[in-house]
C-alpha cells in the first residue's frame, strides 16, 4: 500500500514540476534536476512512445568480454526473484541483459529493454541507467519517478562501474524489476556488485595497477614520508603526507614518473630545494615515488646518462645547434620555434630537458604561471634575469597577452645583459612574427624529426644508451627502414617514448619490425613529394580541427581527394 501511495505522490509531484516550469520556479533536488534535463532534451513525457535501439555491431563488445563472466555468476542467483540484470556502456547503451525467470524477461520485453536499447537520459529521460551516467553515482528510480510513462511500473537501481585507478566511467550496472515493496534492499546489492566488477578490472586487465596499489599501501603504512603513486591515463594516488607538496612539485614528480626511468634514487629540484626521490616502476604506466630528504645542491647522486643534445650530424641539425650556441652568448632575446617534441627546450638549455633536474642554465616554465599566477611568475622571472646564467623561458604559447606584455616590459625595464631564449610551439607564421616584434627577438626554427631523418640512427643510439645501456637495444636494418618511413608526428619525444616502451617490456638486443607498434610496422617509404603532401594534409586537418570538408577547402581540392589521400596515408583525421 505504501508503494502505491508513494507512486501517486511522485506522480503528482511530476505534474506540479511541469506546471512550475512555466512559472520559472527553481528546482533543487537531484530528481527534479533530472526531470528538468529530460524536459529540456525531450519536451513533454508524452512525446516518448518507445525506446530507440542501435545495431548490435556498434556495441562495445570489449566491455562484455571483460564483465561477462562475473555477471553470469551473479545472474545464477537471480532465479525466482523477478530481478533482471543490465550492463550498459558509458553512453547508456544496453550491452546485455540477464534474466532467470519469465517474470523478469516479460518485464524487460514490456519496456523495450533489449540488447542495443539506448537509455541515455537525454533520449528516454530519467531512468536507472542514463541518470547514473549523467550523475556518475548510484541512483534508484521508482515508478513515476521515471520521466517516460511506460516505465511507471518499474524500479531501476543502477550504479557506475569506475576504473579503479583512473576513476573513469567504464560501464553502468542496473537491476530492473517491477514495483516491489522492498526495493531499498537493491541499493546495497548493486553497489556491492559494482565494487566487485571494479576489482575484477584490476585483476584481469590491469594486474600491474593492483601491484602498484599494494606497494603504495605497504609504503604508506610503514614509512612516515610523502608517497605518490601514478597509474594509467594520468591517475594519481597520494598519501596524507603528500598533501603538503605544492601542486607544481606534484607536477614535476609526475613528469619524472612518465620518463620511465630505471628504478632508483633521483634528485629533483622542488620548490623547497633539491630533494631525493625513490622511484619504483611496476610495469608500464604504473609507478610509486617516495619523497625523501633534502640534499645539498652539490650532491653527486648518480643519475642515468642523459641524452646528448647534439645527437645528429645532418647539416640541418648542425646548423640549428650552431645558431643556438651563438644565441646563448648574446643578450638579445631569441625564439626557438617548432612543433612539439622536436627538442627546443633541450637545445636552449644545452642539456636534456628533464623536469626538475639541475642545469647550468635557469629554466622558467611558462606553464607554471597557471599554478602560481602571473604576478608571482613574473616576479620569479625577474629574479632569474638578475643572475649570470642563461635564462630559458619554456612554452610562451601558454601565456596570455597580458602575461606576454608583462614579460616584454620586464625585459625592457631591467635591460638585462644575460641571454634569454624562449621556446614557442607553433608553425603559424603570423604568431611567430607577432612574438618576434613583441620581444624584438630573432627566431630559430628547430626542424621536425621527419625533416632530418638521417639523424634517426644517431638519436636511436643516444636515447637507448641513455635509458637502458645494459639492454643494448639495436635497431635492425629492416627496423630502421620502417622508422625512416614513419612520419613521426610526435618527433623526438615520440622516439623516446617508443624506446621507453621497449625497455619497459623487457626487450634487449636487436629490435625487429615485429617489436614496433602496428602503425610503424605498416609504414611505407614515402617520396619527398609524398612527404610534403602528407604534411599539408595533416596541417589542414589540424587547422580545420578534424573537419574533412573544411580541410579540403583549405587545400583547394575536392573532398573525395582528401578522403582518398587520408586512406592512403593512414591519417585518422583526429
Automatic annotation (TrEMBL):
Q: Name one GO biological process term.
A: regulation of DNA-templated transcription
Where in the numbering of this chain does the Sigma-54 factor interaction domain appear? 438-504
Please list the GO terms describing molecular function.
ATP binding; sequence-specific DNA binding
Give a yes or no for keyword Transit peptide in this entry.
Answer: no
* Cited Pfam families: AAA_lid_14, HTH_8
- InterPro entries in the record: AAA_lid_NorR, GAF-like_dom_sf, Homeodomain-like_sf, HTH_Fis, P-loop_NTPase, Sigma_54_int
Question: What keywords tag this UniProt record?
Answer: ATP-binding, Nucleotide-binding, Transcription, Transcription regulation
Q: What is this protein called?
A: Sigma-54 factor interaction domain-containing protein
Amino acid at each position: 500500500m505504501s508503494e502505491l501511495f508513494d507512486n501517486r505522490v511522485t506522480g503528482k509531484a511530476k505534474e506540479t514540476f511541469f506546471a512550475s516550469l512555466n512559472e520559472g520556479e527553481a528546482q533543487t533536488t537531484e530528481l527534479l534536476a533530472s526531470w528538468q534535463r529530460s524536459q529540456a532534451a525531450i519536451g513533454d513525457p508524452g512525446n516518448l512512445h518507445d525506446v530507440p535501439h542501435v545495431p548490435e555491431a556498434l556495441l562495445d563488445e570489449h566491455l562484455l568480454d571483460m564483465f561477462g563472466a562475473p555477471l553470469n555468476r551473479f545472474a545464477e542467483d537471480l532465479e525466482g526473484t523477478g530481478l533482471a540484470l543490465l550492463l550498459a556502456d558509458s553512453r547508456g547503451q544496453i550491452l546485455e541483459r540477464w534474466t532467470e525467470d519469465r517474470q523478469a524477461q516479460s518485464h524487460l520485453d514490456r519496456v523495450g529493454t533489449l540488447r542495443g536499447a539506448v537509455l541515455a537520459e537525454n533520449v528516454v529521460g530519467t531512468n536507472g541507467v542514463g541518470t547514473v551516467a549523467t550523475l556518475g553515482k548510484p541512483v534508484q528510480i521508482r515508478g513515476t519517478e521515471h520521466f517516460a510513462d511506460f516505465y511507471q511500473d518499474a524500479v531501476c537501481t543502477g550504479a557506475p562501474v569506475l576504473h579503479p585507478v583512473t576513476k573513469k566511467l567504464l560501464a553502468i550496472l542496473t537491476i530492473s524489476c517491477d514495483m516491489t515493496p522492498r526495493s531499498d534492499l537493491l541499493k546495497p546489492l548493486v553497489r556491492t556488485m559494482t565494487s566487485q566488477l571494479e576489482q575484477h578490472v584490476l585483476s584481469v586487465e590491469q594486474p600491474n595497477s593492483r601491484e602498484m596499489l599494494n606497494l603504495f599501501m605497504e609504503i604508506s603504512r610503514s614509512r612516515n614520508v610523502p608517497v605518490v603513486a601514478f597509474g594509467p591515463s594520468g591517475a594519481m594516488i597520494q598519501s596524507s603526507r603528500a598533501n603538503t607538496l605544492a601542486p607544481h612539485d606534484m607536477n614535476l614528480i609526475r613528469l619524472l614518473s612518465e620518463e620511465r626511468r630505471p628504478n632508483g634514487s633521483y634528485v629533483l629540484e622542488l620548490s623547497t630545494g633539491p630533494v631525493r626521490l625513490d622511484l619504483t616502476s611496476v610495469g608500464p604506466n604504473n609507478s610509486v615515488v617516495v619523497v625523501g630528504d633534502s640534499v645539498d645542491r652539490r650532491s653527486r647522486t648518480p643519475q642515468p646518462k642523459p641524452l646528448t643534445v647534439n645527437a645528429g650530424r645532418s647539416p640541418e641539425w648542425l646548423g640549428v645547434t650552431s645558431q643556438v650556441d651563438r644565441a646563448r652568448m648574446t643578450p638579445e632575446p631569441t625564439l626557438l620555434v617548432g612543433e612539439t617534441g622536436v627538442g627546443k627546450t633541450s637545445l636552449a638549455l644545452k642539456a636534456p630537458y628533464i623536469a626538475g633536474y639541475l642545469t647550468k642554465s635557469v629554466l622558467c616554465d611558462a606553464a607554471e604561471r597557471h599554478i602560481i599566477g602571473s604576478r608571482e611568475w613574473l616576479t620569479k622571472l625577474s629574479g632569474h634575469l638578475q643572475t649570470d646564467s642563461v635564462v630559458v623561458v619554456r612554452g610562451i604559447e601558454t601565456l596570455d597577452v597580458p602575461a606576454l606584455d608583462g614579460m616584454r616590459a620586464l625585459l625592457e625595464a631591467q635591460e638585462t645583459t644575460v641571454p634569454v631564449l624562449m621556446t614557442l610551439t607553433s608553425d603559424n607564421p603570423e604568431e611567430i612574427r607577432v612574438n618576434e616584434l613583441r620581444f624584438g627577438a630573432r627566431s630559430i626554427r628547430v626542424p621536425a624529426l621527419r625533416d632530418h631523418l638521417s639523424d634517426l640512427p644517431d638519436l636511436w643510439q643516444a636515447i637507448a644508451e641513455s635509458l637502458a645501456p645494459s639492454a643494448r637495444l639495436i635497431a635492425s636494418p629492416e627496423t630502421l627502414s620502417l622508422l625512416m618511413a614513419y612520419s613521426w608526428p610526435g618527433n623526438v619525444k615520440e622516439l623516446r617514448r617508443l624506446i621507453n616502451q621497449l625497455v619497459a617490456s623487457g626487450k634487449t638486443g636487436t629490435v625487429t619490425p615485429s617489436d614496433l607498434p602496428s602503425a610503424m610496422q605498416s609504414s611505407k617509404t614515402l617520396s619527398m613529394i609524398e612527404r610534403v603532401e602528407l604534411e599539408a594534409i595533416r596541417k589542414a586537418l589540424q587547422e580545420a580541427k578534424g573537419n574533412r570538408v573544411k580541410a579540403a577547402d583549405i587545400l583547394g581540392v575536392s573532398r573525395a581527394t582528401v578522403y582518398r589521400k587520408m586512406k592512403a596515408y593512414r591519417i585518422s583525421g583526429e
